[in-house]
Amino acid sequence: MFKKFSRSIRWRIGNQARGKRFAASPVWPALKSYENRPAKNDLEEFFDRNIDGPGIWKWRHYFDIYDRHFSKFRGAAPTVLEIGVFSGGSLAMWKDYFGPGAKIVGVDIEPACKRYESTDVRIFIGDQADRDFWQGLRREVPKVDIVIDDGGHLPEQQMVSMEEMLPHLAPGGVYLCEDIHSERSSFASMVHGLADTLNNNRNQTAGTDPERRTVVPSTPFQSRIRGIHLYPFVAVIETNELPRTELVSTKHGTKWEPFLS
Ligand SMILES: C[S@@+](CC[C@H](N)C(=O)[O-])C[C@H]1O[C@@H](n2cnc3c(N)ncnc32)[C@H](O)[C@@H]1O
After folding, report:
1. Which of 47, 107, 169, 228 is the most buried (most CB within 10 A)?
2. For the domain that residue 77 is a member of, what is the CATH number?
3. Which of 158, 172, 181 is nearest to 237 (CA)?
4. What is the distance in A from the centroid of ligand 1 to the CA of 139?
């Protein structure tokens, strides 16, 4: 057992080391820099206009990630929960971006953040690492479309929050965790474990049609999760609108080369 275990760990470390060597190799051509991109999206524009008033504190490259995963919710009155209120500016940014009818929920450990509550913004004071806190919040906020974790940034806080809130997301929802940087982030490592689960094909069924391969998701997680995305310092997990009951590979067409059977 131990031998098998250590071989699988050696295999993983070896492949990860290969990825790191590839990333560090000189094959990557020099291109025009990101700072010279032609257009900013609405979130970045809002951020740049926000030169006084309640503060927003974000890495600039996050605006592109937000827009990529959140734009489908604009004008659709989503419920958006951000962990980490701080000075309230990001809550105003979400309100502006998602438009009328959006419900914004802020979570912070600091009671002073309660002052950012308003008609469309609810604030919950609590510790994101406290499972009882999340249980209470889920009762009060039964539907959440988006979670943005910009709270304490400690891996244990990020892990507990995701364990408590990812299964609670509405179908088609998005879970985004910020500031997972460092190659030794145990949260990032946990996300790699989730990605392995998403890639599991153990339940492949051999049907009667040799041209049709089917994998039945091995866990509710594999059936519920649409995708896992990694960016510099950010992980995004999206859920399916409808759970997948099978993953199917089929061939369509009548003309085929002879070299693959
Ligand atoms: C980086 S700031 C949030 C920035 C804000 N989202 C913005 O964009 O301007 C982090 C916030 O997380 C809060 N925080 C720290 N530890 C926390 C915890 N365990 N649970 C909930 N909030 C926490 C801090 O009080 C702080 O207001």
Report:
1. 107
2. 3.40.50.150
3. 172
4. 22
